[in-house]
Amino acid sequence: MERDDFESAMGNVEARFGYRFVSRRELLREALTSGAYAAMTPDLIHHHGRLAFLGDAVLYLIVTEDALRHAPTARRGERVRQGTLTDARKSMVEDAFLAKLALRLQIQLPTRPRQAQDEGKGDVTRFATTMEAIIGAIYEDTQRNLARTADVVLPVLRGD
User: What's the total number of domains in the chain?
Assistant: First the structure.
């Protein structure tokens, strides 16, 4: 993906998330760069692994807090079944959900000719990891403000 293509892909992410990277726009480029792409591109040092690791944890916490906030209130003497909360969280953090979301949002991933041969293999993981990395990048760009990150990410997850 050439520089102009990255700019287009980054603009698409910003539009789809309704968030503009202001302080550290390079985080978004890193979020869209897979390790395989970086390995085939000599001038790239960073790829989305670090941000995906962070984004996975942020996503888990955001969705957990949201599930608790919207959990049905139990009547006196009753309990909210933990499995209900777990199911609500699980449905929004699974790789399959994140990959479908990335496709629905038309997230563009950079590829090189050698990668194109393997296209289709591991797409769920690639797209899910990229979504996690984007969430990690948003979290970093907001100076690790979890509430602000949740305000950006939750509407996208819900399809609002």
Answer: 1
Q: Which long-range contacts (CB under 8 A, 24 or more apart) does 72-78 make?
A: none
Q: Are 64 and 80 in contact (CB under 8 A)?
A: no
Distance CA 93, CA 64 (A): 10
The position carrying tokens 């009547």 is 75
Domain range for residue 21? 3-158
Neighbouring CB atoms inside 10 A of 54's CB total 18
Closest of 88, 55, 94, 92 to residue 69, by C-alpha: 88
> In this structure, are residues 154 and 69 in contact, taking their beta carbons and an 8 Å threshold?
no
Q: Which residues are annotated as catalytic? A: 56, 132
Q: Dump pLDDT digits (tens) for 66-121.
A: 988 877 664 555 566 667 788 888 888 999 999 999 999 998 776 544 444 445 55
User: pLDDT category, 58, cuts 50, 70, 90?
Assistant: very high
| The amino acid at 117 | Q
Structure tokens at 51: 């941000």
At residue 149, what is the residue type?
A: T
The answer to whether the beta carbons of residues 83 and 89 sit under 8 Å apart is no
CATH of the domain at 50: 1.10.1520.10
CA distance 129 to 32: 9
> Taking residues 40-57, what's their average pLDDT?
76
